[in-house]
């Protein structure tokens, strides 16, 4: 694992002018709204590379020549300056080869914008699980490297960062790939940016259906184990090359975890998967056994 020391240099920026921002900022590079607007050609739709629960993401070239992913937080995910900067200070101090680097942010007027290192090869959900609409090939060595990289990034958040960070939304679209297919976990620390009255993407708790640990989904109990559960789902996706939920498949094949559990049980009782030709048959078979 390559871990870089935390950086604590004060950054200077012409964008800093508000006393509240001056007070709240420690190690974060502040970008002027104008600078980010120029970088994205006025947030042109042609430069938009994605959209998620937090807002839209644009590709842009910064003044210093760096290419960045510029995430414009939506109105609902905007917090007060103080709360926003508290979280951003924490995120921007974190550096690890398997975590997406936050370059800085913009907090002008109502705008809350995050500026990240741009990853050339998109996310796992659009490549490995994207249904073959890309030219990348994931052999076992590459898949293994991705699994280990994600594990390292997660272990860093859980064990090296003080206080530790629970990601709360480990999933394929939050695993980005650089030009060498090194995986980088994105959006860590962002769950805390969600104001209490805002529900995230698809669930009451921060997280995504299909990846949620039962104790977190049902009782809201949040520990690092919730991330480990989601990581397990992600591993099953990486190994099988399919999404954990696919409603276009026949009902008995839609849920990957169900398939994994089923084959595990069959393996333990010494029955080959192919000898049982449907899930319903398996359930009947199961009723007789237990
Ligand atoms: N640093 C980055 N480099 C390259 N592409 C990025 C980067 N960050 C985000 N993207 C692209 O933008 C898309 C949207 O990202 P975003 O994090 O906003 O939503 P999401 O992860 O897909 O979903 P959700 O908000 O539900 O977690 C990603 O799937 C990815 O394709
Ligand atoms: Mg994301």
From TrEMBL:
Keyword RNA-binding: no
Cited Pfam families: Pkinase
Listed EC numbers: 2.7.11.1
Binding site for ATP: 71
Gene3D superfamilies in the record: Phosphorylase Kinase, domain 1, Transferase(Phosphotransferase) domain 1
Keyword entries, A-Z: ATP-binding, Kinase, Nucleotide-binding, Serine/threonine-protein kinase, Transferase
GO molecular function: ATP binding; protein serine/threonine kinase activity
Superkingdom of the organism of origin: Eukaryota
Catalytic activity: L-threonyl-[protein] + ATP = O-phospho-L-threonyl-[protein] + ADP + H(+); L-seryl-[protein] + ATP = O-phospho-L-seryl-[protein] + ADP + H(+)
Keyword check for Nucleotide-binding: yes
SMART domains for this protein: S_TKc
The Protein kinase domain, residue ranges: 43-290
Protein family (similarity comment): Belongs to the protein kinase superfamily.
Protein name: non-specific serine/threonine protein kinase
Species of origin: Glycine soja (Wild soybean)
């Amino acid at each position: 694992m390559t871990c870089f020391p935390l950086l604590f240099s004060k950054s200077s920026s012409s964008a800093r002018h508000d006393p509240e921002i001056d007070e709240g900022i420690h190690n974060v590079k502040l970008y002027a709204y104008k600078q980010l607007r120029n970088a994205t050609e006025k947030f042109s739709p042609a430069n938009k590379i994605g959209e998620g629960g937090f807002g839209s993401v644009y590709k842009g070239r910064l003044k210093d020549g760096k290419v960045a992913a510029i995430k414009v937080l939506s109105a609902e995910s905007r917090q007060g300056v103080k709360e926003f900067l508290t979280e951003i200070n924490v995120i921007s101090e974190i550096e690890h080869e398997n975590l997406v680097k936050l370059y800085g942010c913009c907090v002008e007027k109502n705008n809350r914008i995050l500026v990240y290192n741009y990853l050339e090869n998109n996310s796992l959900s659009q490549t490995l699980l994207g249904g073959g609409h890309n030219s990348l090939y994931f052999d076992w060595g590459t898949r293994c490297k991705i699994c280990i990289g994600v594990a390292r990034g997660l272990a860093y958040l859980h064990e090296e960062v003080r206080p530790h960070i629970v990601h709360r939304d480990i999933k394929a679209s939050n695993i980005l790939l650089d030009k060498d297919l090194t995986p980088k976990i994105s959006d860590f620390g962002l769950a805390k940016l969600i104001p209490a009255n805002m529900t995230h993407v698809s669930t009451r708790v921060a997280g995504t259906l299909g990846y949620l640990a039962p104790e977190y989904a049902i009782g809201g109990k949040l520990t690092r184990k919730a991330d480990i559960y989601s990581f397990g789902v992600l591993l099953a996706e990486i190994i099988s090359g399919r999404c954990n939920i696919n409603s276009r498949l026949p009902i008995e094949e839609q849920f990957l975890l169900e398939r994994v559990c089923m084959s595990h049980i069959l393996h333990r009782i010494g029955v080959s998967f192919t000898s049982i030709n449907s899930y319903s048959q398996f359930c009947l078979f199961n009723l007789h056994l237990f």
